[in-house]
């Protein structure tokens, strides 16, 4: 159920109802421009990942600043972007449900829609859906570049799948999906560099073997906010699939030489109890902010530490400095931005202390 917006344009921040998901528009725009500037000299393209923001509005702003398209993880996310006018979407995931594949194929009538496979049986399923819909679908082969999750083995097994796709009348070989997700939060630069060097090596060998079989590889896609510089410098990746760069979160900020982006996403909360000495209780717990990657930070309030969450309550320890007053509103920096976004129906865009805009999070809850 779509909730009513927690604010109206022109409101002061202290008038916004809580909990609410805020975007600092100046920091957000800085992040988009910074990524564009960093990638421009490399010639590598940005296909921003919408699993982070789940919004056609954000996607359009990213594309206005140079992104060539969007990634998603779910068909439901792809639908919301396509219906919102995004012309180029890649599902960076395997889809095996006939019903989901029919929905995906239907989107090919209004946008360019691609999907990933790592098994010949998946190729047959996508092929059947494309034939039934009378469309052609680009299909990328996902290879395992070190994450140990999805992806066929690089080299000959991947080439065999690419040849199967290329031989199809209703599919097009779109390239390789080569994402190393677990490298994103390796804390030291050396760890990340080593992991991505291996990922690039596996990808490069596969591209070379594809060429030997007469197959061009239009896309080698992957990377994220934690490693995009390594993939962009590799000489093999052609597209970067970063998502969190637009918002940043506490966990990415823990990386040594943290990515050069500003925190732009916040959950606005309100102190609802000061009954216990040394503790402030806010109206934002598990249902308001994700803690899977650690507790949120309390923005620009040194001495306050978000110590724990229950369903509707967040416990903030007052360790030093000024204690917050009953009713005071505090910004929280999510530990993990993606699942935090998925708890909300609206972004509240803030600039200079005032609400400038409200954007619907149309793909919230799109798990299918």
TrEMBL record:
User: So which domain of life are we looking at?
Assistant: Bacteria
What are the BP-aspect GO terms? D-serine catabolic process
Which parts of the sequence belong to the D-serine dehydratase-like domain?
264-351
Q: Which GO terms describe its molecular function?
A: D-serine ammonia-lyase activity
Q: Which UniProt keywords apply?
A: Lyase
Q: Does the keyword NAD apply?
A: no
Decide whether keyword Lyase is in the record: yes
Homology family: Belongs to the DSD1 family.
- Protein name in the entry: Alanine racemase
């Amino acid at each position: 159920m779509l909730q009513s917006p927690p604010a109206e344009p022109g409101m002061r921040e202290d008038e916004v109802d809580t909990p609410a998901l805020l975007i600092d528009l100046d920091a957000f725009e800085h992040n988009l421009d910074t990524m564009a500037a960093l990638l421009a000299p490399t010639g590598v393209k940005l296909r921003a990942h919408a699993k982070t923001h789940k919004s056609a509005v954000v996607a359009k702003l990213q594309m206005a600043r140079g992104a060539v398209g969007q990634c998603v993880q779910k068909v439901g996310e792809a639908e919301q972007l396509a219906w919102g006018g995004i012309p180029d979407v890649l599902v960076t995931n395997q889809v095996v449900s006939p019903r989901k594949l029919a929905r995906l194929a239907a989107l090919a009538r209004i946008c360019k829609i691609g999907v990933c496979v790592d098994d010949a049986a998946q190729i047959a399923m996508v092929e059947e859906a494309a034939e039934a819909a009378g469309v052609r679908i680009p299909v990328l082969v996902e290879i395992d570049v070190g994450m140990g999750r999805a992806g066929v083995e690089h080299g000959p097994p991947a080439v065999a799948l690419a040849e199967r796709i290329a031989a199809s009348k209703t599919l097009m070989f779109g390239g390789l999906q080569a994402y190393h997700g677990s490298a994103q939060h390796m804390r030291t630069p050396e760890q990340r560099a080593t992991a991505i060097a291996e990922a690039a090596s596996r990808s490069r060998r596969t591209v070379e073997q594809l060429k030997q079989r007469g197959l061009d590889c239009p896309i080698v896609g992957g990377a994220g906010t934690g490693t995009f510089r390594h993939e962009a410098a590799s000489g093999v990746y052609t597209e970067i699939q970063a998502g969190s760069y637009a918002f940043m979160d506490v966990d990415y900020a823990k990386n040594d030489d943290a990515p050069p982006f500003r925190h732009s996403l916040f959950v606005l909360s309100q102190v609802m109890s000061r009954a216990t000495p040394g503790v402030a209780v806010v109206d934002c717990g598990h249902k308001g902010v994700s803690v899977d990657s650690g507790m949120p930070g309390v923005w620009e309030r040194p001495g306050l530490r978000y110590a724990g969450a229950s369903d509707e309550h967040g416990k903030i320890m007052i360790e030093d400095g000024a204690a917050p007053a009953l009713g005071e509103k505090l910004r929280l920096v999510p530990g993990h931005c993606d699942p935090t976004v998925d708890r909300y129906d609206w972004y509240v865009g803030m600039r200079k202390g005032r609400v400038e805009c409200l954007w619907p999070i149309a793909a919230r809850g799109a798990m299918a």
